[in-house]
Design a protein that fits this description.
Length: about 400
């Protein structure tokens, strides 16, 4: 049965205003005692999602008591019992998997063919339709200094099927602070929210390694996955003689269910250093990263979180500038049902950058699933004060 939009908003926000169980988790490396960032945390009973920041910190806000699953590609998966999380701030240690060496798997079929079958099965099994509650978090740097920040709570309603995905976007709350100027190309200011889910759910970032010609450009291999014996890894690395801005890819998949669990890519510094010509024309790329984490739970198979980073150098007013954009998306909740809403409520823009700031709760601390570090919060506060000064000058110009 189709419900009204008001019920959708109630479903996603009711936990905040009822009886949440809130506490902090700091995840550290068992051997080094250092914090671990980008640990995917899932509440097993409520399926709420969280992600640790650079300090290994996540503020967990549960609608009811639940054990937590912690997953990171470099560490052994672990389950933390809710009964042990009895402090306001809880430190949890994950065991690295570096003690176990990866082993090559000899396969009858070429790894590229295996990858194609895994992608098709993953697309077939991805849960559609679904409504995802997403926290979007973006920082923009100029010459290594953060100059702009925006984030927001977004509802993605995903309709259609794996071959024809349609996404409607409903923005609950958002904020934007800082000042962008002409040295940042508007084409990369934020990621196009209208097709980002389609790209992720159809695994389009892997298209470049699926062509038959890619076998002459990349080395493909299948290896064991030390942290989980049910998983395998397909690694795709550019051959030394291959030219251009080519990424190293890693695809972690469930060897029994044939589902992708994680897909990531990055361009090595050495390859970027020698790279001269690119799709970005006048821009020289110095950083390019991407990562999607998926989760399979019963009949549900969905995106858990994502990260994209692009950094490039560009001349602006006869001066070389370094620009970097980092985007995180965390799926904090989801609902298999679809909902009815007015077309005027659908967000049509490509990103939240130019959307007017609107919020009624401190969602970034308690509903986001991914909190900024203390250092980042100080920067955001400083950028916000700068916005206030600019607005004051507009409203009260000096004579």
């Amino acid at each position: 049965m189709i419900k009204k939009l008001t019920f959708l908003l109630w479903f996603f926000t009711s936990a905040v205003f009822s009886q949440n169980l809130e506490f902090t988790i700091i995840v550290k490396d068992f051997d080094t005692d250092l914090p671990i960032d980008e640990v995917t945390i899932t509440a097993l009973k409520t399926r709420q999602g969280f992600l640790t920041n650079k300090d290994g910190k996540a503020i967990v806000s549960l609608s009811r008591s639940s054990d937590l699953e912690l997953v990171h590609s470099s560490y052994k998966k672990m389950i933390v019992k809710f009964s042990t999380l009895d402090k306001k701030e809880n430190v949890v240690y994950m065991e690295p998997n570096t003690q176990q060496l990866e082993e090559y798997i000899i396969t009858k079929d070429h790894p590229q063919q295996i990858l194609k079958r895994i992608i098709e099965n993953s697309k077939d099994k991805i849960t559609i339709p679904i409504s995802l509650k997403v926290y979007l978090h973006e920082f923009y740097k100029r010459d290594n200094e953060i100059i702009f920040f925006n984030d927001g709570l977004i509802n993605f309603q995903i309709l259609g099927n794996e071959k024809n995905i349609k996404t409607d976007i409903l923005v609950e709350q958002n904020r934007a602070v800082g000042v962008l100027d002409g040295d940042i190309d508007p084409n990369i200011l934020g990621y196009d929210l209208n097709n980002i889910i389609e790209n992720y759910y159809q695994f389009k970032y892997l298209d470049e390694v699926l062509d038959s010609k890619a076998k002459k450009t990349y080395d493909f291999s299948v290896k064991t996955y030390p942290s989980n014996e049910d998983y395998l890894v397909i690694k795709i690395v550019p051959l030394p003689e291959s030219k251009g801005i080519l990424s190293d890819f890693m695809v972690v998949y469930d060897s029994n269910k044939k589902l992708i669990i994680e897909v990531s890519s990055y361009v090595t510094p050495d390859r970027l250093q020698t790279y001269k010509e690119s799709m970005f024309a006048s821009r020289k790329v110095y950083k390019l990263e991407f990562k999607n984490t998926f989760r399979q739970d019963g009949n549900y198979y969905y995106l858990a979180n994502s990260k994209e980073v692009i950094g490039f150098e560009k001349r602006y007013k006869n001066k070389e500038r370094r620009i970097e954009v980092k985007n995180h998306m965390v799926i904090t909740d989801f609902n298999k049902k679809t909902f009815e809403y007015s077309d005027k409520n659908v967000f049509k823009g490509k990103s939240l950058i130019n959307k007017r700031t609107t919020f009624f709760t401190d969602y970034w601390d308690f509903e986001s699933g991914f909190v900024s570090t203390a250092e980042e919060k100080a920067i955001i506060e400083k950028l916000g004060k700068g916005d206030e000064e600019i607005q004051n000058e507009v409203e009260n110009p000096k004579e």
